[in-house]
Amino acid sequence: MNIFRIIADIEKVDPEVYNKLDSRRSVFKSLGNMGKTAALTAIPVALGSVFNKAYGQSSGTVLEVLNFALKLEYLERNFYAGGLAANGLITDGAARAAIQKIQMHEAQHVDILIATIRSLNGTPISEPTFNFGKNFADWNTNYQTFLTLAQAFEDTGVRAYKGQAANLISNDAVLTAALQIHSVEARHAAHIRRMRNNAGWIVGAAGNSNVPAGAAAVYAGEDNVSHGGINDVKTVGSGYSAEIATGAFDEPLTKDQVAQIVSLFE
């Protein structure tokens, strides 16, 4: 049995295999210290343990997360496309240019997620049909409502990607792609917030957003002032208010929380 030939074959389909096995070199080193017969007997068991730890996060979980992200990107792409197509909704030239660029970013996110899912032999979810007027009837006739929902979607996207990062940690390439999208979503959120004359970051459970009551779920948990076991207000010292503490960190959203938000538009 040629261990390194096996690993080389795995590398053809998973370039990150050496990164995943790096911290487990001691296993192979200990095999080298055994007698030849004992080592041959131990190899199958040792390899099973090593690869189980390296690939413990199933590809099914990764695909599930990617399809979860794809649904959010479909929602954002279609929302902006609908707003741009609405007659007389976005009349300011600079604002329209910004929304067009954001819409194109979201379309690219859709494309890259679909390609990634297929590269992992998965099946991308079909594009859903969204009803943005289900709870917000004037979303495509009232510019302020449109911007409010845009902010809510972008803030949701940032927190949703953050909430799923741990589920992608078994695949460096996928995690890297997700973090690249996450940072762009954060820039979108800050830009839309500025367009609404809000701070570029979320402040408290209200999100500093003036969102309708129906969208309050977007900012669930954002009033948290404790991070890493430290109360940011009490421990850090004077001059640090709850507003500063909540604005310094975005809280992750769970899949169930995001599903509740998306259900407002299905």
From TrEMBL:
<dbReference type="InterPro" id="IPR012347">
    <property type="entry name" value="Ferritin-like"/>
</dbReference>
<dbReference type="Pfam" id="PF13668">
    <property type="entry name" value="Ferritin_2"/>
</dbReference>
<dbReference type="InterPro" id="IPR009078">
    <property type="entry name" value="Ferritin-like_SF"/>
</dbReference>
<protein>
    <submittedName>
        <fullName>Ferritin-like domain-containing protein</fullName>
    </submittedName>
</protein>
